[in-house]
Amino acid sequence: MNLVLLGPPGAGKGTQAKRLQDQRGLVQLSTGDMLRAAVAAGTELGRKAGDIMERGELVPDDLVIGLIAERVDADKGGKGFILDGFPRTIGQAEALDRLLEERGKKVDRVVVLDVDDDKLVQRITGRFTCATCGEGYHDLYKRPKVEGVCDVCGGTKFTRRKDDTEEVVRARLKAYHAQTKPLISYYEGQGKVRSVDGMADIETVQKEIDQALDGA
Ligand code: AP5
Questions:
Q1: Active site residues
Q2: Cis peptide before 8 (omega within 30 of 0)
């Protein structure tokens, strides 16, 4: 199954994609993670994308489409993909449809996570990550069991994303409403959309996604 997780910044796409990956053996493809890795490695792509990401704008379609094509080809025999943060424009969605069709695949389901904008700002500005293993935490919703120590690996260093300030989150939300939200109608036209209440707690959202994937 190839699944697109669609939703604004902070809706919980990454959180739910990791759970789906663990439970269903699907491969998470996060263009945000790939771009951040390119920025950290100082590659040409990273140099092109870094400033754009810090402003909360979308990087050009051709750069992210190339990244996805490489990953799809690298996992030919797998059970499928969870597309997290891609596509984000109609151009990306059309390119994805073509890319999958050429390989005898398709997008099977599009799960839309609905969350209020103000809640998203609170979620994102409180988010932090273990610098060693990448486990995600939140100032209000998910603190480490022992303060300052990662529950998973025992690491003691944590990082926050540069684009997680309130000002940049507002810019990211603007980009979502202008460029990404129209994808809901695009995929509704293909009969693939299931909406989930992303305001519920993480476990409840996960159950709703399971129902959306396993139901008719
Ligand atoms: P990207 O990394 O994709 O960021 P995003 O879409 O803004 O989404 P986030 O990762 O911030 O949020 P999320 O929905 O994954 O939420 P999370 O699970 O972390 O993109 C970053 C930038 O890269 C873009 O701005 C753009 O510049 C560029 N880019 C990436 N892809 C691109 C593309 N295709 N085209 C062009 N440019 C691209 O959850 C957030 C927090 O909330 C966490 O702390 C989590 O623990 C908590 N949380 C999650 N669910 C719940 C819940 N149900 N209840 C309470 N807390 C919750």
A1: 13, 88, 127, 161, 172
A2: no
Residue-wise pLDDT for 164-196, tens only, equals 999 999 999 999 999 999 999 999 999 999 999
Hey, what are 162's tokens?
């540069």
Tell me the pLDDT tens digit for each residue of 35-77.
999 999 999 999 999 999 999 999 999 999 999 999 998 887 7
pTM of the model: 0.93
Residue 14 Cα to ligand 1 middle (Å): 6
Three-class SS state of 20: helix
Given the DSSP bridges, would you call strands 193-197 and 127-130 parallel, antiparallel or unpaired?
A: unpaired
Amino acid at residue number 16: Q
Beta bridge partners of 84: 5, 30
Distance (Å, whole) CA 61 – CA 91: 7
How far, in Å, from the CA of 201 to the mean position of ligand 1?
Answer: 16
- What's the length of the chain? 216
Residue closest to 67 by CA, chosen among 51, 78, 83, 90? 83
Q: Residues with beta carbon inside 6 Å of ligand 1?
A: 7, 9-15, 31-32, 35, 52-53, 56-59, 64, 85-86, 88, 92, 123-124, 127, 136, 138, 141-142, 163, 172, 198, 200-202, 205
